[in-house]
Amino acid sequence: MLEDLFKMVRDRFNDDKTEDTKQESPEIPKDLLFKCPRCQSVFYMDEFEKRRKTCPVCNYHARLTWRERLEITADKDSFEPFDAEMNSKNPIGFPEYENKIKELQDKNGINDAVVTGVCTIRGYRAVLGIMDSNFMMASMGSVVGEKITRAFEYATEHKLPVILFTASGGARMQEGIISLMQMAKTSGAVKRHSDAGGLYITVLTDPTTGGVTASFASLGDIILAEPKILVGFAGRRVIQGTIKQKLPDDFQTAEFLLENGFVDAIVERKAMRKSLSNILRLHNYKKVVDMWQHG
Amino acid sequence: MSELTATQRLEIIREKTRPTVNDYIPLIFNHFTEFHGDRHFGDDGAIMAGIATLNSTPVTVIAQVKGRNLEENKRSNFSMPNPEGYRKALRLAYQAEKFHRPVICLVDTPGAFCGVDAEKRGQGEAIARNIAEFMTLKTPVISVVLGEGGSGGALALAVCDELAMLENALYSVISPRGFASILWKDPSREKEAAELMKITAEDLTRFGVCDKIIAEPVGGAHNDPHLTADNISEYLLDAVERLTKLDIDTLLENRYQKFRKIGEFTE
């Protein structure tokens, strides 16, 4: 089933040179207007889509589905997925958990909240992981933990860099303590990849929080972030409840993290592929495909 | 071992007279010498760390401090560490590695502190760093959950070769109250959550998270702190002896696999 979906994605790829002025598919948008959750500005959906789902007023970089992210990140036809058939069990017997998973699998065309695989980015080969917040807020349970761990182990074995687009509400509480342990499991695999000399680039996307922030999302050699996204450990409401005062507007944004020294650079979506490939080049990874005559 | 529900154990560990690390450290160790500060920002009262002897073996002790009264709790922030607490722990862990001392972590926290300054100083990064670095720390690491093992705030001191839990201790991804509040939007369903979440030492043994359950006196540790401390000591002596016999590569491979194998899925 997933193979078909990847074919669909591939078919939708356009030539790289038109990356910034890509024609949108002629689908009628479900909603005509988009309201920015950051600055509350309202504008036409097609303008929002044309700008790759970024706000023309405040430059908030909105959430993407894994398909959309894959399409603007990996080279056409280059992505080979890992572990697409892995399914979560229900370790604590949480009511209705299996049904919820099944429903989200059907809706999103993925087995859980992360897609992992290997691809090329402007000709550079890399292990790629994309978390999708549409799947149970991209919380980390057994499947997310296992897929990310395997992705790092594969990269260690094949001496490949890892690029992860993170997004998560945190640990998946429906899996109880098992979800907490995924923080240790994934971080252990990141550490081994790092000790073997591998490069790991984290790209923080909206929203990256909780147990994912407190594990692999904070362990990149290089940590990039999209503008105006939410990143933090504790939930805003929890902190608000603790301090009983209004939080600053930029609290837990990419810009807040940059100011406090926890992000290497904020990179706009339209420049992401170039940034990533440039970093890969500067770490002496060699192009395996020389198909990017268009730069 | 007693057959108590998670809710009953929750009540026992919330007992005001339940012993804390301030009681246990003098009973378990000798010559405890506390070292302060993370060398970057400050000293966190929620984590007490230093060196001591266990029987005659030098060890590094890293402990989360529950206060027994308001005064103590103000100093230890109700055992909710800030990033500098985790960074102090990591500094002491590196020191232990350098001087070949086993590390003993005593876990007792509702969770890492949630606040504006904790975020500014990178609470997530501090926890992540500890988790990753403890995974490859070249000396034995033993963690004992004394009461509450709350989420990432506990895990930052619980990436170890062996995890032991006191009989009534609980270790969970989020507090039962938080679980009820987030999943059911109803914090008053705390008890129901505690039962569902599978957070007792027995549950965690079944999941392969807990390696050893340390017995408490009937009714809970507060009924006989000395006996409880003796039980902890007995376990630690045995564990240190066992783990120091392993060569470092085996120790680290076992530690990696301990966490690597946790996860429940089909494919």
Question: Short summary of the structure?
Answer:
The complex is a heterodimer of chains A (295) and B (267). Helix content of chain A is 34%, strand content 17%.
What does this structure look like?
The complex is a heterodimer of chains A (295) and B (267). Chain A is 34% helix and 17% strand. With 295 residues, chain A is an alpha/beta fold. In chain A, the strands form two sheets. A seven-stranded mixed beta sheet of chain A has the order 3-5-6-7-8-9-10, with helices on both faces. A two-stranded antiparallel ribbon of chain A has the order 1-2. In chain A, helix 5 packs parallel to helix 6 (177-195). Chain B has 267 residues and is an alpha/beta fold. Helix content of chain B is 45%, strand content 19%. Chain B is built from twelve helices and nine strands. In chain B, helix 4 runs parallel beside helix 6 (123-135) and helix 8 (176-184) packs across helix 9 (190-197). The model of chain B has no long low-confidence stretch (mean pLDDT 96). At the A-B interface, strand 4, helix 5, helix 6, helix 7 and helix 8 of A face helix 5, helix 6, helix 7, helix 8 and helix 12 of B. Strand 4 of chain A pairs antiparallel with strand 9 of chain B.
List keywords for this structure.
heterodimer; A: 295 residues; alpha/beta; 2-enoyl-CoA Hydratase, Chain A, domain 1; seven-stranded mixed sheet; two-stranded antiparallel sheet; 10 helices; 10 strands; disordered N terminus; B: 267 residues; eight-stranded mixed sheet; 12 helices; 45% helix; globular
Topology record:
The complex is a heterodimer of chains A (295) and B (267).
Chain A lengths: L1 H11 L20 E3 L6 E3 H6 L15 H8 L6 E3 L4 E2 L8 H12 L5 E8 L2 E8 L10 H16 L4 E7 L8 H19 L4 E9 L1 H4 L8 E4 L10 H8 L10 H6 L5 E2 L5 H11 L13
Parallel strand pairs in A: 6-7, 7-8, 8-9, 9-10
Antiparallel strand pairs in A: 1-2, 3-5, 5-6
Chain B lengths: L5 H8 L7 H8 L1 E6 L11 E8 L2 E8 L5 H7 L6 H16 L4 E7 L6 H5 L2 H13 L5 E10 H5 L6 E5 L3 E3 L3 H9 L5 H8 L3 H6 L5 E3 L10 H21 L2 H13 L4 E2 L1
Parallel strand pairs in B: 3-4, 4-5, 5-6, 5-7, 6-8
Antiparallel strand pairs in B: 1-2, 2-3
